[in-house]
Amino acid sequence: MDCLFCKIIAGEVPSSKVYEDDMVYAFRDIAPTAPEHVVIVPKTHIASANEITADNVKYVTAIWKAIPGIAKILGVSENGYRVVNNCGADGGQTVNHLHFHLMGGREFGWPAG
Ligand code: AMP
Ligand code: ZN
Predict the structure, then answer these.
(1) Of 19, 39, 74, 92, which shows the fewest CB atoms inside 10 Å?
(2) What CATH number should be reported for the domain holding residue 19?
(3) How far is the CA of 97 from the centre of ligand 1 (A)?
(4) Per-residue pLDDT of the chain (113 residues; tens, 9 = 90+)
(5) Is the CB of 23 under 6 A from ligand 1?
(6) How far is the CA of 110 from the centre of ligand 2 (A)?
(7) Is 92 inside any structural domain?
(8) 3-state secondary structure 70-95
(9) Is 97 a catalytic residue?
């Protein structure tokens, strides 16, 4: 399958790994929009949030279970951070493998633009 994030998980495309467990892989975003910006992906191909099912939601649970530890690694736990999922064209999704952006190291506005 021609999926960039599957290739990153497989080690076929290089990445700057921040965290890994049996279900989750997290790496630094190549075009960061914050001082700390990590992309967190399930180690199975789920195309987008639209494809989350009762069978694969355990990967989403594993991602959220990992998030506090990843925030600690990045040093943003205390000041806080933002987690974002972009889904589909209107959501701004550019890579069709489910992923969550964890961003910190600066303040973010709300509502998001
Ligand atoms: P999204 O727009 O939500 O689909 O996010 C995709 C993210 O992947 C963007 O923030 C990109 O900068 C990032 N990205 C694309 N290619 C790579 C890569 N090879 N390594 C790390 N991050 C990447
Ligand atoms: Zn994939």
Answers:
(1) 92
(2) 3.30.428.10
(3) 10
(4) 799 999 999 999 999 999 999 999 999 999 999 999 999 999 999 999 999 999 999 999 999 999 999 999 999 999 999 999 999 999 999 999 999 999 999 999 999 87
(5) no
(6) 30
(7) yes
(8) HHHHHCCCCCCEEEECCCHHHHCCCC
(9) no
